[in-house]
Design brief:
Elements (H helix, E strand, L loop, with lengths): L1 H5 L3 H17 L26 E4 L2 E4 L4 H9 L4 E4 L11 H7 L3 E4 L10 H13 L4 E4 L4 H13 L5 H10 L6 H8 L8
Parallel strand pairs: 2-5, 3-4, 3-5
Antiparallel strand pairs: 1-2
Length: about 190
């Protein structure tokens, strides 16, 4: 093929060889565009919400966010909002629409107090977390149901002991539902129940 392009002229052959070498070696590798910077976990994430806490990497737990707090959560780089409140609870009207308008994914897992503390809901929380991209906000009215469900997830799905699961729940906001969670975990009633 080279002989056809160059004929018998050795200089022409040399130019073609040189051009081939430059094309193969000299061209810079095409790099993919830089990824968007990952959201960092600033120390003040917890201040974005009432009863806010950051019990796990990339997860903010708390109480019911206002529309302005949802915007602040979005601005902090969050991509998913998981709401554990039942439809119609005060303060929940329009939340799904607002989250969508802000470009975040909205997931509803209605937890009806102690009656909603089930393995099924713990599995639904685990599935929603697994599908999330970027930091995740998980909320209820006061973070109590959030902590309860994280405790059950830790116990039923993550292999935590009952005592470890209870501590995980407390870190995520568990308070008044601790007695119901202790019962689900097979623990004796503790102080403050």
């Amino acid at each position: 093929m080279l002989a056809e392009k160059c004929g018998r002229n050795p200089w022409r052959a040399a130019v073609w060889v040189l051009l081939g070498a430059v094309a193969a070696c000299g061209a810079p590798e095409r790099q993919p565009p830089p990824a968007a910077p990952a959201a960092e976990e600033p120390a003040d994430w917890a201040s974005l919400l009432p009863y806010g806490a950051v019990p796990f990497d990339g997860i903010l737990t708390g109480g019911q966010p206002s529309p302005a707090e949802l915007e602040a959560v979005r601005d902090a780089g969050f991509g998913t909002v998981i709401n554990l409140r039942r439809p119609g609870e005060r303060g929940t009207q329009g939340e799904a629409e607002r989250v969508g308008e802000l470009g975040m994914r909205y997931v509803s897992i209605p937890v009806a107090g102690a009656d909603g503390l089930t393995e099924e809901n713990a599995r639904a929380l685990a599935a929603a977390l697994a599908l999330a991209s970027g930091p995740v906000l998980v909320h209820c009215g006061s973070s109590n149901r959030v902590g309860a469900l994280f405790a059950l997830k830790a116990f039923y799905l993550d292999g935590a002991s009952p005592e470890e699961a209870l501590e995980i729940g407390r870190a995520a906001g568990l308070t008044r539902l601790e007695g119901a969670v202790r019962e689900k975990l097979g623990l004796a009633a503790g102080d403050g129940d």
